[in-house]
Batch of 2 targets.
Target 1
Amino acid sequence: MIPRYSRPDMVAIWSPQTKFRIWYEIEAHACDAQAELGVIPKASAEAVWKARDVEFDVDRIDEIERTTKHDVIAFLTHLAEIIGNEEARFVHQGMTSSDVLDTTFNVQLVRAADILLADMDGLLEALKRRALEHRDTIRIGRSHGIHAEPTTMGLTFARFHAEMKRNRERLETARKEIATGAISGAVGTFANIDPAVEAHVCEKLGLAPEPISTQVIPRDRHAAFFAALGVVASSIENVATEIRHMQRTEVLEAEEFFSKGQKGSSAMPHKRNPVLTENLTGLARLVRMTVVPAMENVALWHERDISHSSVERNIGPDATVTLDFALARLTQVIDRLVIYPDNMIANMNRFRGLVHSQRVLLALTQKGVSREDAYRLVQRNAMKVWEQGADFMEELKADAEVTAALSPAEIEDKFDLGYHTRHVDTIFARVFGDG
Amino acid sequence: MIPRYSRPDMVAIWSPQTKFRIWYEIEAHACDAQAELGVIPKASAEAVWKARDVEFDVDRIDEIERTTKHDVIAFLTHLAEIIGNEEARFVHQGMTSSDVLDTTFNVQLVRAADILLADMDGLLEALKRRALEHRDTIRIGRSHGIHAEPTTMGLTFARFHAEMKRNRERLETARKEIATGAISGAVGTFANIDPAVEAHVCEKLGLAPEPISTQVIPRDRHAAFFAALGVVASSIENVATEIRHMQRTEVLEAEEFFSKGQKGSSAMPHKRNPVLTENLTGLARLVRMTVVPAMENVALWHERDISHSSVERNIGPDATVTLDFALARLTQVIDRLVIYPDNMIANMNRFRGLVHSQRVLLALTQKGVSREDAYRLVQRNAMKVWEQGADFMEELKADAEVTAALSPAEIEDKFDLGYHTRHVDTIFARVFGDG
Amino acid sequence: MIPRYSRPDMVAIWSPQTKFRIWYEIEAHACDAQAELGVIPKASAEAVWKARDVEFDVDRIDEIERTTKHDVIAFLTHLAEIIGNEEARFVHQGMTSSDVLDTTFNVQLVRAADILLADMDGLLEALKRRALEHRDTIRIGRSHGIHAEPTTMGLTFARFHAEMKRNRERLETARKEIATGAISGAVGTFANIDPAVEAHVCEKLGLAPEPISTQVIPRDRHAAFFAALGVVASSIENVATEIRHMQRTEVLEAEEFFSKGQKGSSAMPHKRNPVLTENLTGLARLVRMTVVPAMENVALWHERDISHSSVERNIGPDATVTLDFALARLTQVIDRLVIYPDNMIANMNRFRGLVHSQRVLLALTQKGVSREDAYRLVQRNAMKVWEQGADFMEELKADAEVTAALSPAEIEDKFDLGYHTRHVDTIFARVFGDG
Amino acid sequence: MIPRYSRPDMVAIWSPQTKFRIWYEIEAHACDAQAELGVIPKASAEAVWKARDVEFDVDRIDEIERTTKHDVIAFLTHLAEIIGNEEARFVHQGMTSSDVLDTTFNVQLVRAADILLADMDGLLEALKRRALEHRDTIRIGRSHGIHAEPTTMGLTFARFHAEMKRNRERLETARKEIATGAISGAVGTFANIDPAVEAHVCEKLGLAPEPISTQVIPRDRHAAFFAALGVVASSIENVATEIRHMQRTEVLEAEEFFSKGQKGSSAMPHKRNPVLTENLTGLARLVRMTVVPAMENVALWHERDISHSSVERNIGPDATVTLDFALARLTQVIDRLVIYPDNMIANMNRFRGLVHSQRVLLALTQKGVSREDAYRLVQRNAMKVWEQGADFMEELKADAEVTAALSPAEIEDKFDLGYHTRHVDTIFARVFGDG
């Protein structure tokens, strides 16, 4: 995570200020529950809420931590400075640091997931708009980077929309995976704290209580969370790769938006680099690299060891901040992508009708020409196009053996692009619904 | 995937025989749909079913492929040899090889997922049985590998159960991810085939039609599938790590089952190595390593390139066969795991009561002793235990300052293990339901 | 590792037959050393060599293993069947299974490395030949997929040569990393065997004795080995990516070789897919995925656990067989790559001279035109080319403000391609030496 | 990279200040070379050195970049503000931004490697000191976590020393890999700049000229660099894992150093957690995760795309800063590790002599007892030890069948620990040399 690839809202989730605020809320809600159970005085629980609107002094907490060498104790000491030592006495009673730390981490991940879901909604909207806009913009479909059959630019946007919609579901599942909290004590037995406290705190924070925890919340949840992010990132790379291809000089079917003022482009007007999508390709790798360590974090020793912690302190912010930035950047790219329908047509026609050779072949066989003969007929005309730059339809019309089977009108019919796009509506209905 | 770590049912899914069988079914169902649409003669469609019970000759197909250099054409040629050239003429009409290949791959993954789900059910059953069996078997909980507070062996099994139940859900989601088929032509436009064919074939194969495909089914689905397998594998490593720790000489709270006849163990009776769980640790790495390439496969060029194919030819079988084997092995390990409750108690009592120091500390403060004094009292008695091998309870009872606050009965009460296990039923109800 | 992507020599290294042969050699050499030390009778050591030319019966060994559940014992039993029980009595004395297994694994990796080095030599030769052949074949250099400045096809081959030469060195280093053997007993203390045995066996096998082993050879060596393979694979992907780009329809500067007989290409003569290099892209992922598990294998418990073994049984053959196949395939691709110099020129001239705009700009400033003015002059002519399809040189010659600074001859000089290639010889000398 | 796991010297390498300083040096040296070639005036080149001792104003450069959207231009503008527009006119002439950026990145990596090498020297020194200190400290060697045969703590340190020495060589190789610079222009042809400039700049910066570059330095170099870091990190995990095992409650053969003042430990004196080595385990994952993206960075499109850049902006600092911190932390852990020789002996003697069963078995067969009988004899006495807590040596001495073959003195001899350590000096000489 570096500022260059960060957006403020996501960064804020991972700030010390936010972290202490969540710690505070956990402690305060826990006090309420403890008071309700009669474990601590109600007045003490209420007193904790005095800090409700206080901004915690991060420097002061750091200062205390330098002495105590313990972050939660440092925070509790600072809290006592705010609400008074007498009232603070009952805060954190029966709890373990991990109760606070692990529940907080999940709150942060839930909030991060909410931002990512909103990002995804924005991307879906952009993709849908562009899909509808270019529903009928014909371009050549390519397999292996080689021309195959016609398709439309709208279908390209539509398939990215479908892919991102699946990613939205994966993000929702991922959010659910880590939307749990645990306040269950040193080894998860609730030895010193009633399960009711956990229930209350989780309810207030919008989490489900972790059915069974140890000192920590089980890390398979987090592995699944980061794995989902890795899939989303890979889809971003997929879209980015398409655009990078479309923008390359010889293809030029689309370009990332260039503001008029952007320098350097007009002396070499062809030199507009798809730097945003190249950047997205790299960002995808950064998100993806967090998946394996998140999986390595699952196997902890007995009721916990702390090997996962340094990993999460990094990949928690890194993966979410980077993915948020990448989704926003991709949305902007899609939104403003400059499409060149004329170049699409020009590219498709590069081989003067050869793209229709398959249909002609099929038509000949349907007219009773043997497959071998049909192939030979198509081939000899195709080779004239390929080698001598002839026009495929003209050659076919001039070939007596061909016209013996197909009339000129029938030949022309095989060159009708509408044939390839007649199911576009059906596909759009599948992707976007009939509305 | 090597025979040593393979089980036959899963291996069979990936055999050429199975593959050709699925190809055949796709082609035959497609013919039915084409006949229904009037595209091909009904009689021809029916004739294809003549091969219904024929075992395809894999060697023959390979032989043809050496000439044609194309696997699908080789298969179709062989099929024609069975049902007759005349009838075979309409098979595969309007279809693209990828229609068959990609749909088949997903059928295989669905079947693999079904086996994995059944494996998981077996594992869940074993974990539940052992959890109930050892619900009250006390052992020391450990954080950082260091004794913390008492827990029970049942809770250990129960948390693995909860984790594997989540993994079951992940496998179900993963199954849904790849339970789609596509028969949509060279670039996904249905140019030469009606969407009704896809609908029919998918219904027959238990798949959903892929809403929008290109030449291929989008690979984000497969990335999500393999990512789920990677999470499951990481959980297997988690359980394996626990058992390896329990079996190490100094701990010896459990052992993998050793048959009486297993050689070499009796001259060195302590030398029973947890080789199965060590093996599972390695297998987990093998499954996990497939996640990143599956994600790298997502970004294909335009409507498809074939870079994903060599990857999938390997990781498809490798990850599913290895995970199947690992789940089955783990189930067997859990089923037969030899538990040593006496050693658990002996380990816990290693420090002659020190494990209860926290409760004594708390009790003192609750009796009005200041936190500093309480700490000092506990500490001076704890150090006698630690340094001189004294018994903690005896020391406390002999300490006048302690007994001024706590009666001998109250001290004894703090050494009651029941305190730590009183919420076990609650946790079990969360994990297994109340039944 | 699947047959489709395998070559026999590398596969043979990993056959049971080869493995048993190496086991045998280790045992036989160890007997010689033991006899030399007087630990076992010389006659017994000599007798072991009776099996020198015997082909071991893998099925028989497997059969014995099913009873003994121990592979090394099964082999030794079979060996005794060949050389006689009496003589076999002293075989393996003082040794531990791992002495044999680990040393054998390293022998296999060394042999694999030797094949990879030979593969690399073949690739280097092909790259050099093509580099020299196309030293002066002008093509446009591209950054971000966008035309930049002219370069030559020879430079492209030359840089791949330089990259692969570095990879050759990495392979040599990797070979050295794992060219060690260990015969040091159960925990590496030589308790039951003299270090002289290790020294003798290693010398005979072409290995260095591992300076300090435990039960196993330390796995950082293997991690480094597989990491080197991962780098080589990534370079293969790099070359493959270049070729895939060159072959895409709109670029068509090169094509993978198509044999005349290869079917299906002539009715759609443009439809020649770069399937070999796409395949190489996937194979690179397969090799690369072995790097992380090899690194996870480094941390073993105490003097050894066996978690690494299942990983290595897979990635040992998989990574080496796949990389061997990939290197050979890439060599073939390079060897036969069809280059289209005319298309290269046509692509470069796509923008009618704009590629030289930078040089014109520079020339103007060198003639004293201010940078702002020079930029304005170049820009207004460039835009005519870009928007109206004019010819850049013609426009410049017709622009009075330009010709005030630059004569027609001077303008023409800026369009000289030789300017861009004048240092090619220097670079070639750096890469290939002056010879 | 987060402050918690960072050390200032390594962080400084990646500061904007350092980066601009290296940019400046490259530009200034390039001017000298250009002046020498007569391309720019000598006075202008000399003038650039006016900024030699100036601290660049990072905020000012950022401010300019917000306008120009180009970091190198922003820097050059700021440089012009310092040395004067007139003199600055010739700076960067004929160069491409990447000439500066890529060469700078390598300078940073070289400096990072130098720090890592110094770190490694510190670690090696600590390991050697502890190895010599505990050369003869007997402990049980363990395979599979199960007691095997005796070894010494010194051998453990020595093998880590040997492993880290290999890592030192890998770091040196890695340093060499990236110690190159390139000043070769937009596509690497030196079109606008003489190779002599590159030669001069590289010499001044301690780099070798990259034999053939494109717009960028080839990324296989960086992949190899990060792979080496990943291997080093895995070895750190290896050492950390050993210590974590040694510190676990039931083993307690060593502990990370605890300062007297460290709170919380004395009321639960057994509760000293190996948090530093657990942390190192996590840090190893963080370094290792950078390997795959570095390898994915190798395949760039044609003469360059910029997908690698965002990856490197993160993993460059992240991997080096984390590894530096980890090496320093590990050195401190090793330096101060508290070793408990008495516990080592107690652990070894846990099974009252059974650890010597193998030697007794061997002795019996050497005395002519058949292997079957010898096994039976050892077994029946071993089982008494295992099941009834008897003492192995006593039982053997009391077994008439045993004493028929071995005298009491001979039996006692088999329990001599010196047998296991008699080759320690040989091994130490291999690792540390004879000095």
Target 2
Amino acid sequence: MSTFTTQDEHYMRLAIEASREAVAEGNFPYGATLVSADGKVHVSRNNQVTSGDCTGHAEVVLVREVAQTLGAQALVGATVYASGEPCAMCSGAMFWAGVAHIVYAMPTRVINAVGGAPYLQPKTAEVLAGASRAVRVDGPLLEEEATAVLRDFMTKK
Amino acid sequence: MSTFTTQDEHYMRLAIEASREAVAEGNFPYGATLVSADGKVHVSRNNQVTSGDCTGHAEVVLVREVAQTLGAQALVGATVYASGEPCAMCSGAMFWAGVAHIVYAMPTRVINAVGGAPYLQPKTAEVLAGASRAVRVDGPLLEEEATAVLRDFMTKK
């Protein structure tokens, strides 16, 4: 069991706020916050509908935006706070980028139960098990706050 | 054990040829061929170095390029031939895109052994196990031809 700090909660709330903004823009309710090893912060949100690109999950958007704006080095050793436990695609993208630590709000089990199909099953830690570089994965943190956004999205859909 | 046709070999050779072109452009030795449900063909190659985007694996590039050029519908029900067994990121991206069938040349075990770190462990079929929609995964096909390109790349690196 992890102990989270008020700093962790702050960064996760930025990700959850981004998940609301994603919905307001016509996309899916997911956001992610990067905190680089030297303290730079970048927040991204899902854009898969408006971009017409199904790879536009918040974490993949984050990896691309950070590489373009702060430079790829800002991803190395970074922590990412994701409003939903990252799927296999996003877990892989963050691994290749050099992310060191992933913290999530809603677990995969909750995302799949509340959001329904389509869904993948593996948890982030399962995707990254046995990787050539260990990535720490912690969660859930602020699960209820993040799930409220997904529930609201599903109700209005 | 799958039985492959000369058509399968043809599409896989397009992917392997693309893996050579990727290296010639300064990228990693991977390529992928899409054959849509209505027979449209699109070939993509790794661009992660020249694009400065670590998500630029051949299959993710393919998902994005096809959505932009042929339209997202061309991915639904499609078969993708990949010169390397797709990693978790690429497996997830193709799942979200609606790809129905994945055929690979080099197995993950061979890619990791020949190419070395960084690497992820899950096989494509493990990433997609239990997904809300079944994706058929077959391989290896033309493993030696694809591995020769990776071996050559590693020798010259």
